[in-house]
Design goal:
Belongs to the PhoH family. One of its GO terms (cellular component) is cytosol. This is Phosphate starvation-inducible protein PhoH. The chain is α/β, with parallel strands linked by helices. It folds into two domains: 153 residues, 3-Layer(aba) Sandwich (Rossmann fold), CATH 3.40.50; 297 residues, Rossmann fold (3-Layer(aba) Sandwich), CATH 3.40.50. It is 31% helix and 19% strand. It contains 15 helices and 18 strands. It has a six-stranded mixed β-sheet with strand order 3-4-2-1-5-6. α13 crosses α14. The longest helix is centred in the N-terminal third of the chain and has 17 residues. The protein is elongated, with a radius of gyration of 27 Å.
Length: 470
């Protein structure tokens, strides 16, 4: 380890870090944190409103108020001790804690002439340069979610980093995919103590062997070749696992609301969507892989035919791709209608009834009475009983928003999250910090949840070519 690696660090936080994660001031272990005055001013300007950002700002203000409670000017100048586990010891054998410093005086102007003005970003850069001059024995590092600010910092020779503490994974390619391919010699290596039986028309196997330790509950297993297999892990018992052969929904006789699976992943998805023992299902996939169609078909079958759920609730984050269309008149459902084009398109496929205009009108009235469209803005405080909840475009949710929604589920409710982590429209959210990524990773070991990543587009040859070529 180099001598430079032992130098104490002083992190200067940008406003957007605190707006993104109010607990960021507690996430830097034994290192010190510095808040420029311009950051406090920006927090003050952002505290009003009912948005997620405004709530985060108010929470940051409460944290800072608690830390400053009872502290005088001398204590603030010396740095407020940050709570949390003490990590390591200093040279005197005392436990080390990080400290929080505020800008309590004007710092000398260190910015070059090509960055003039009173722009908040430039003020932060000037503060970092001044701190580097005053603390040559420290590594002064700026933390910001703003890519352009980090670029400007690098141009000035300032060490700048993104805020990584909220990342679920280091790389989205490490995200749990929900399925695993079995090796060709699987039956030979695992047949020694294998048991098999049938129960209510389903075939089960109890398997023990080297591969079972890495399986998760409700993980999908498959084997290619002549002795092909498609199964799902039903239970883990120490070193044993119980797997069940899945239903084949590719056969038209076993279609769900007239929809048949077109590939292996869609078949796995329908098995999890149609299983009332699985309370939480997440489907990832690019455009055209059938996420919404499969989910709606399973919901209609279990709501209208099997009466497992009382109604279907559809919701999504209202983040526009282009310019916003402004305020909309009408009720909550009418305001949400423009965002529900995917729902309407798929309902059109699922309700191709005979009987002319009268038959279509009767079907539309029936579906409208059992499908509700709700806005995420009004979910807080609600409890849904015996509902089939579809959360579309879930990749645009933060982990906190995802928790708020999932904890609305009451007895008998199933939640299905759909999304594509490559299409995130929410500012400062990335593939590794999305609430959908967070939920997939945290739910993978729970026995009443299931996940599958849909790989192949089934929309049209035009859409498939466009996905690859454009």
């Amino acid at each position: 380890m180099t001598e430079n690696a032992q130098r104490p660090r002083l992190y200067v936080l940008d406003t957007n870090v605190l707006m993104h994660d109010p607990t960021a001031i507690f996430r830097f272990q034994e290192h010190d944190i510095f808040l420029p005055m311009v950051v406090l001013e920006e927090l003050d300007r952002g505290k009003k409103g009912m948005s997620e950002v405004a709530r985060n700002v108010r929470q940051v203000s409460r944290f800072l108020d608690e830390l400053m409670s009872g502290a005088n000017k001398e204590a603030i100048d010396a740095g407020l001790p940050l709570p949390g586990p003490a990590l390591g010891q200093n040279g005197n054998g005392e436990q080390e804690h990080g400290r929080l410093f505020f800008q309590t005086r004007n710092l000398p102007k260190m910015l070059p002439q090509n960055l003039p003005g009173n722009i908040p970003d430039n003020n932060i850069l000037g503060t970092v340069l001044a701190l580097q001059e005053e603390h040559p024995d420290h590594d002064v590092i700026m933390i910001s979610k703003d890519i352009n600010l980090r670029i400007k910092a690098s141009v000035l020779g300032i060490p700048a980093e993104d805020y990584y503490n909220d990342q679920v994974l280091d790389d989205v390619n490490l995200l749990y995919r929900g399925e695993a391919e079995l090796p060709g010699d699987f039956w030979e290596s695992h047949s020694k103590d294998m048991e098999s039986w049938q129960e209510e028309g389903h075939t089960f196997y109890r398997i023990s062997g080297p591969d079972t330790g890495g399986w998760y509950p409700n993980q999908c297993l498959y084997m290619e070749g002549e002795s092909g297999l498609e199964a799902i892990v039903r239970r883990k018992e120490k070193e044993d696992a119980i797997i069940e052969l899945v239903n084949d929904y590719r056969n038209e006789r076993h279609s769900v609301w007239g929809i048949s699976a077109r590939n292996r992943e869609q078949n796995f998805a329908l098995n999890m969507l149609m299983d009332p023992e699985i309370d939480f299902v997440s489907l990832l996939g690019t455009a055209g892989t059938g996420k919404t169609l499969l989910t709606l078909a399973a919901g209609l079958a279990q709501t209208l035919d099997q009466n497992i759920y009382r109604e279907i609730i559809m919701t999504r984050v209202t983040v526009p791709v282009g310019e916003d269309i402004g305020f909309l008149p009408g009720t909550e459902e009418e305001k949400m209608t423009p965002w529900m084009g995917a729902l309407m398109d798929n309902l059109e496929v699922l309700t191709q009834t005979e009987g002319g205009e009268w038959g279509r009108a009767a079907t539309d009235d029936l579906l409208r009475s059992r499908i509700r469209i709700h806005s995420l803005n009004f979910m807080r405080g609600r409890t849904f009983l015996n509902k089939y909840i579809i959360l579309d475009e879930a990749q645009n949710l933060t982990p906190k928003q995802m928790k708020t929604l999932i904890t609305r589920a009451g007895p008998g409710t199933k939640i299905v999250c759909l999304g594509n982590v490559a299409q995130i429209d929410t500012p400062y959210l990335t593939e590794t910090t999305s609430g959908l990524t967070y939920a997939v990773d945290r739910f993978k070991e729970w026995e009443h949840s299931g996940h599958i990543t849909l790989l192949r587009g089934e929309r049209s040859r035009l859409a498939d070519f466009a996905s690859d070529a454009l």
